[in-house]
UniProtKB/TrEMBL annotation:
SUPFAM superfamilies hit by this protein: NAD(P)-binding Rossmann-fold domains (SSF51735)
Domain Ketoreductase: 10-187
Gene3D superfamilies on file: NAD(P)-binding Rossmann-like Domain
Protein family per UniProt: Belongs to the short-chain dehydrogenases/reductases (SDR) family.
Sorted UniProt keywords: Oxidoreductase
InterPro entries: KR_dom, NAD(P)-bd_dom_sf, Peroxisomal_Beta-Oxidation, Sc_DH/Rdtase_CS, SDR_fam
Extent of Polar residues compositional bias: 283-294
Protein name as annotated: SDR family NAD(P)-dependent oxidoreductase
Amino acid sequence: DSPILDFKGRVAIVTGAGGGLGRQHALALAARGAKVVVNDLGGTVNGTGGSPVAAQAVVDEIKAAGGEAIANGASVTDFAAVQAMVAQAVEAFGRVDILVNNAGILRDKSFAKMELEDFRSVVDVHLMGAVHCTKAVWALMNEQKYGRIVMTTSSSGLYGNFGQSNYGAAKLALVGLMQTLSIEGAKNDIRVNCLAPTAATRMTEDLFPKEMLEAFRPEAVVPAMLVLAGQDAPNRTILCAGAGTFEAAHITLTEGRYIGIGDQVPEALAARLAEVTDRTGEQVPQSGAAQGSNEVAKGMAAARR
Ligand code: NAI
């Protein structure tokens, strides 16, 4: 058997790959044989400014190690520039097999103090940035009947974090995007997954005590990305990775109770809320439609009793 995590002949786009996690993703993909488009706007953590230097430095590093890469300075918020990036990838390397949506910014503030502009710009980069990049490769991946797309979500989106209402909302939106795209892409072997990393980068370095910086180095997240971008990748998985530990997050559904329809239901629901939210036997529905039709089935079964 050929090694599963060999990327020879594959072409990957990694956004926000001028530093931090994206740089490590790009280096690892290139080291395993992929031709890589290193995208980065080259701005600050809060998304201002821009410079081609960061992306080019990573390209130079890949080439010095004997790999193949090209730099791209598109902002993922600019759909025309993203389309041009995909055209550049196809012109240089002939195809695009892998997209790692990694670019991101922070504008942390408690919701009370947050300007709507800071909310919008964070949603714009994380959610719309990933939408733009995914849309720009989607037709191509469908035609070639192969694609691996990784969305970078966050524990802040999955579980919340003080001061990150904008970031958390944008990050969980990427899980929603993944849920539907993994269903729509399946017939043409496009697999879409989420990565929730924890790593000491310029984005988070102040959060980690000094003695933990080494354990949380971004390289420790890379294996999860490689598995999600590989030929044998799962589909519709949310993989968490940090400091050598890997976990999966699931959006589960409790068994619930059929309570009925009618005037007495609000009080009955209030009285039985603990039963409805009890987690014994909870499941992960295969789709939103499956969850809805299951509710109807429970109602019909109750009506027959
Ligand atoms: P980072 O700040 O080092 O990397 C983000 C990169 O994205 C930067 O190089 C930046 O220039 C680039 N970028 C920002 N806006 C862009 C745009 N509009 N177009 C193109 N590139 C743009 O931070 P880090 O930690 O490496 O973050 C990578 C991803 O991982 C982000 O999506 C972040 O939200 C996510 N993440 C990181 C965590 C961590 O613990 N470091 C935790 C959870 C998620």
